[in-house]
Design goal:
The protein is an alpha/beta fold. Helices cover about 25% and strands about 25% of the residues. It has one domain: Metallo-beta-lactamase, Chain A (4-Layer Sandwich).
Amino acid sequence: MQVVQETKNLFRLTRFGMVNCFLVREDDGLTLIDTGIAGSASGIREAAKNLGTPICRIVLTHAHIDHIGSLDALALEYPRVELAVGQRESRLLRKDFSLDAGETGKKLLGFPGVKLRPTILLNDGDHVGSLQAIFSPGHTPGHMSYLDVRDGSLIAGDAFTTQTGVLAAGTIKLLFPFPALFSWNREVAAESAQKICNFKPARLAVGHGKTIESPLAGMDEAIQLAFRQCGKMLD
């Protein structure tokens, strides 16, 4: 597992060059944002050990297999760990695919579920340590992004990717089709991309691709493309 220090408090952990999770340093320990694919637990544990700080909580952006794949394995190693997830997304952890009134989208795929139950359910604007939760549905019905209020780092999960340039979830690009293939509602995803861009992050950290410094111009271009593909134009 490759470990890249992005800021004083943010560390990107990458497997196979394209699947990221993150460690965020807090005063009381480390927050792990997402858990990567299955088999990532040992690499995550080693990264935390090298930082000399225990993992005290796990925070999820969403419940897709490449973001929760090592969650149950980590829970065995850290039996007292807190688990925080968006309230809407929490149903997908137990494979409840029911939709709320007004929700529409593609068939929900890629949610294997986990045994561990959340200890903290988050809503838009809630805080977990230094992280502000931003409800950003579209890629999944309850997707959350997280803004570190100390330095403006945005951990956006799959609301954006940077694997082949900055793209909003749901955008069709033949060289990297996954943002479109695995996104539930691309119009809602475009609206969420605009919402999180309005927070004017200093850097954009994502589930797939490298972290981007001063990302606003790239995010804006991605949002414009996302809305065009939905047949809409921004005001």
